[in-house]
Amino acid sequence: MLSPKVPLEKGSKKLINAWAFYDWANSVYALVISSAIFPIYFGALFVEVNTISFFGYDIKNTAVISFVTAFAFVIVAFISPLLSGIADYIGNKKRFMKIFVYMGSISCIGLYFFELDTIYIGLFFYFLAMIGIWASLVFYNSYLPDIAYPEQQDRASARGFSMGYIGSVLLLLVNLAMVMQPDWFGISGAPEEASMKAMRYSFVSVGIWWSLFSQYSFYYLPKGNHEVKVTKDIFWNGFKELKLVWKQLDHHLGLKRFLPAFFLYSMALQTVLLVAAYYGEEEIAWASSSEKTIGLIVSILLIQIVAIFGAILTARASERFGNIPVLIAINGIWAVLCVVAYYTRTPMQFYIVAGFVGMVMGGMQSLSRSTYSKLLPETRDTTSFFSFYDVTEKIGIVIGMVCFGLIDHISGSMRNSILFFIVFFILGGIMLLRIPFKRS
Q1: CA quadruple 38, 39, 43, 44: dihedral positive or negative?
Q2: Which residues have a Cβ under 8 Å from the Cβ of 440 and sit 6 or more positions away?
């Protein structure tokens, strides 16, 4: 795709909007594939048999998806600093971003072929799509200082979040209509067969949406901030930056104590969020498959909407009580929610839990990042520190998903896995007590 003859100036409204528009393009993956339609479809495939044969072993289906997700995050955790190093130094980083966008969007389209007869191919597409989305975000985030001045970056980032939320909800509502009323869209077959086919078309719609709307961003985003020759030093720069951050932690007590706590509770938080829809699909006593589909999607939408208010309320609470005390309280709430979720069996109970999850989900994620930011050294470049933060989060997801999958497979129930994460929330809260409140 061509670029404008005269590049847009840094800080221009049009350039910032073009950058933020990539959130509109990619956020449909997180909502439709990660959270809503795909978990429902995946569960529906295994109504009769809930195991997948892997190298001669029969593994529980939800454990398999946990392991595949964990492996994808292993790759992402490894390549993120490598890609960050390239993004910081190479000129044409737009080309790298395009590679992962197209890989991810094509993989989403490939999920159309995700069936029991082609389960391995389907899991491979799921794996590639996850790498595509997370790797593309490395380059997308690295563009922020290139397109906006420091005083503009908070608003630019917020604009991207808002656009992503609106776009993803719009497509999810269309997909919900497709699943519930497939005949409106010319999708034929028996009711359940047509709904399953509509879900597969939903995966295709995500791939097309992601690729199509990315073009607006690609058109206006600059190639990069400078041209350099690619060398092995550039490739490994990201890892060198992480090593430097690690060495500096000894000189910053607040960071040194916060990161282990964040690692523990983020491991539990992100894992619970990734498996929430699978849990609702398998463990809740829905009256019918149609009620299950509507109920799960409504729950995801409820979580998304409530999370916004949760983030606002948490921010106000932190202004009054301080970041660390509020984070400790939220960890306690999450531990209680895990216990409640263990005993949750009816749709109404699931909706109530979803509402509380949304309230503390948005608050914990936003407050964790802002707390980390406040603990950073004032006079240093924060890019490498946030790269360290992101890698910490991803490694936590890997361990969390593996633990969840193992407990789910061995015990035969996702309820036991959810109960297990109480330990991480409690330990995370206890470790936060070691951070001086005045530093928060």
Answers
A1: negative
A2: 318, 322, 323, 324, 325, 371, 374, 375
Q: Is residue 59 part of a domain?
A: yes
**CA 107 and chain centroid, separation:** 17
Q: What is the DSSP string of 381-410?
A: -SHHHHHHHHHHHHHHHHHHHHHHHHHHHH
Amino acid at 289: S
Q: Is residue 4 part of a domain?
A: no
Q: Are residues 167 and 276 in the same domain?
A: no
> Residue 75's CB: how many other CB atoms inside 10 A?
17
- pLDDT tens string 370-422: 777 677 776 445 556 666 777 888 888 888 888 888 888 888 888 888 888 89
What is the tally of structural domains in the chain? 2
Expressed as residue numbers, the domain containing 432 is 241-440
Within a domain: 428: yes
Residue 337 DSSP SS3: helix
Q: Which residue is listed with tokens 């072993």?
A: 57
Burial label, 262 (beta-carbon count in 10 A; 0-12, 13-18, 19+) = buried
CATH number at residue 354: 1.20.1250.20
C-alpha dihedral (111, 112, 117, 118), degrees to nearest 10 = -40
Angle at the Cα of 359 from the Cα atoms of 317 and 274, rounded to 5 degrees = 130
Name the residue among 31, 110, 121 with its Cα closest to residue 68: 121
pLDDT digits (tens, 9 = 90+) for 115-172: 988 999 999 999 999 999 988 887 787 777 777 776 776 677 767 767 887 888 889 8
User: Helix 289-321 crosses helix 253-283 at what angle (to 10 degrees)?
Assistant: 160
Tokens describing residue 6: 């005269």
The pair of three-digit structure tokens given for residue 160, joined into one six-digit string: 């991207």
- Between helices 323-342 and 289-321, what is the axis angle to 10°? 160
Yes or no: say if 238 and 84 are a contact pair by the CB < 8 Å rule: yes
CB 77 within 8 A of CB 138: no
H-helix or E-strand spanning residue 51:
strand 51-54
